[in-house]
Amino acid sequence: MNAPDRRGTHEGVSRVDLVYNAKWRRTLVATVPLGALAFLLAWFLERWSGEATTFDLITYPVFGVCLIVLEVFLLLSRRSLRPLVITTVGAVGAYFISKLYWILFVLPPDVDPRGQMTENFFWVPVIYLLSFVLPDSRLGRQLSLAYTGVVLVISLAYCVKSAILGQNWTVVYALVQMNLANSVLFALTSSFILFKEEYTRSQTRLAVVEKYANTDHLTGLPNRLGLKLDLERRLAGGDGRFAVLFIDFDGFKVVNDSLGHAGGDKLLEQVASRLKSVTRGDDFIARFSGDEFVIVVDSLATTNSATSVANRAMAALAQPFDIQGNYITLSASIGISFYPNDSIDAETLIRYADSAMYRVKRSGKNGIQHYMGEPEEALERQRLLERDLRAAIEERSLTIDYQPLHDLSTGEILGFEALVRWKHPKWGQVEPTEFIEIAEQSGLIVALGSWVLNEACRRAAAWQRSGAEPLRVSVNVSPLQFTHPGFFDTVLAALQANLLPPECLELELTESIVMKEVESVSATLARLQRHGIRIAIDDFGTGYSSLAYLRDLPINTVKIDRTFINDLVSPIRGPRFAHALVEAIIRLAAHLELDVVAEGIEEKAQADLLKELGCGLAQGFHYSQPMEPRELEAFMQAREANSPGERGSRPPLGPS
Ligand code: C2E
Ligand code: CA
Ligand code: CA
User: Fold this and answer.
1) What residue spans of 413-444 are helical by DSSP H?
2) Distance between CA atoms of 318 and 321, rounded to whole angstroms?
3) Closest ligand by atom to 561 CA
4) What is the C-alpha to C-alpha distance for residues 314 and 538, in angstroms, rounded to an integer?
5) 538 Cβ closer than 6 Å to some ligand 1 atom
6) Per-residue pLDDT, 530
7) 624: which DSSP letter?
């Protein structure tokens, strides 16, 4: 906002004044000559008719000439109207007052005053109306009040005089009429001025409030609401094409956490001014929320110009920021949507740009993507799942089911695989494959994984304390979790905290982890194994890894993937390949003294075949489903009750 100048007005207001002046000047230029004409005409007619009074003979020409001078002034000078109007109102008012006084008190008693009070007094409303012209409305009201008051006083004085002298009641009647008319004119004038003033004031206040509500106070940029208004304005104008760039910084939270809030704010301010520098002309930039900004790139000749603004924004952010002596560079993920190609609706354009941004995030951040019309619901679901998964992990509202691993030949239960479960408040059970993928892409897997690890160890230890013989618990480990620097310590901490013997924990890793960096991975695996922790290769056979890995890696168990177990009895795919592969794995594993688990056994035929091939362990619906802890405890107890002693001396699981 501009600083007030010496007259206490703001630049914006005085500009309004100028416009106001100019408009009124035009009106006055058109009307003042009519006033002059009236006076001169009256002068001429009175002289001609010979009825002229001395007052009129002097004042008419003087006023006529004064008004002509005023007209010249109005035409020639661009100065403020204020002094001219004050003088005019004052002069006209003084004229009527002195004329009234003259008629009532000076005129010889033989002249009828009513004859004198006619034509001239038609012009009285001009005094009231002129007070509107004054930009200073208080003065306008005061002048018209003064006029009304003085006329009233003179009239009262005349009435008193008439009452005493018993003169001319018809004049008193005319005066009453005139004062009533004056009062009405005054009331209307001053109310009009007052209301106009109030209205202007409230409009100004509204404008200020609106601006306040549309602005982000940290960066001074328009906020989300401001953005919406800008887009709506563009859409209403229907003028040309534009693009919406949705910008989200990568890892801003980390920067914010390490700099503190004040530092984060400083950074955002600088970011805002850098982003401003890449926009031009009618481009628009807003802070959408936290670390999200939106740029509206105006009238694009080609889609390339949106991309080039995005590139410039990325380049601007990549230059180091100096925040309290810390040099920070930022990268951003930018999504772009186009009007009218992608949508003709403001909110949808923003949402599309946002989901394109989200795609950048998912594919490794630091990049630019255009909205591609992806099935929006799927993307929206992923996005909401990510948000809710974060909350679910924090609130510990995930659960774990346990699926038993059986000895293939005896059916005895040797361990359980921990399988995480998430019941979403809106969508119900979400498949682990779906939310694990989201967790991996968003980095949430580290927190999720260590919770599962700890919880599974806690449960296994509790079952053992309740008297069950050592049972193994298998926990799935994602690649990202495994390569996270704190992984090894997390595993040891989970074991120690829950007093679970390390040999009771088996970590299930997929081939993909192992294939990445064989050396460092096998070093970590060896380290885990030295601590007594068991390692299983999960989904074996799907990752196109060579069987030689089984020889080279420090592992304890191979889990043959479900698809091969399925194919063993599938008439469609033909069992021959699966049969050969499964057999080879089992033989090799036997040779290397590894345990072999066949996953996903659903039918007796599969179980029989695998038994024949010499597979040791089995997991699958044919034996048992994944179960909640309580259900599993009941399951174990029921098995024990049905065939006591058959499975050795293993007591049933007690509640944990
Ligand atoms: P997985 O490690 O291969 O786990 C076995 C999956 O096969 C489980 O699916 C289990 O319910 C299912 N299954 C067991 N027996 C049968 C059967 O006879 N037939 C069929 N068709 N399926 C059977 P679930 O629980 O849906 O888990 C899917 C995947 O999600 C898991 O595959 C694993 O990769 C991942 N996952 C589950 N929990 C976790 C976890 O805590 N951490 C990580 N990183 N991944 C997990
Ligand atoms: Ca598994
Ligand atoms: Ca598996």
Assistant:
1) 432-442
2) 9
3) 3
4) 41
5) yes
6) 96
7) -
